[in-house]
Amino acid sequence: MNELSHVGPSSSRFSNSTQLFDSAYYLDLLTNKGLLESDVALLSDPLGMEYAIRAVQDPMAFLNEFGWAMIKMGAIPALEPYGWRRNCAFVEPKY
Q: Which residues of the sequence carry a binding annotation for Ca(2+) (predicted)?
């Protein structure tokens, strides 16, 4: 069993997919289980509402779109002086 499955409250307002990465977040939003202002803002925008509905109706399309978004985000060049760390636990020396 995953060590992280023991973290958090025993009962949750959220969907029971804590060990999965899926579109359940959007189902929670559409069933009024969002907690943050950003959740409300997402559904108050017609495009956000459309996206949430599509994510719930077609979870595989959601995962595909998320994968492409991660690839695009990974292609964003690092800006100096910060850059990307090879090991997030350590600040790399400046050359």
A: 22
Whole-prediction pTM: 0.58
Q: Distance between CA 15 and CA 65 in Å, rounded?
A: 21
Q: 16: how many CB neighbours lie within 10 A of its CB?
A: 8
Residue keyed to tokens 């959220």: 14
Q: How many Cβ atoms are within 10 Å of 93's Cβ, its own excluded?
A: 5
| CA–CA distance, 8 with 4 (Å, rounded to integer) | 9
Cβ(43)–Cβ(29) below 8 Å:
yes
pLDDT digits (tens, 9 = 90+) for 42-57: 999 999 999 999 999 9
pLDDT band at 82 (very low <50, low <70, confident <90, very high): low
Q: Verify cis geometry, omega within 30 degrees of 0, for the bond prior to 46.
A: no
Please tell me whether 22 is known to bind a ligand.
yes
Ordered by start, the domain boundaries in the chain are: 12-95
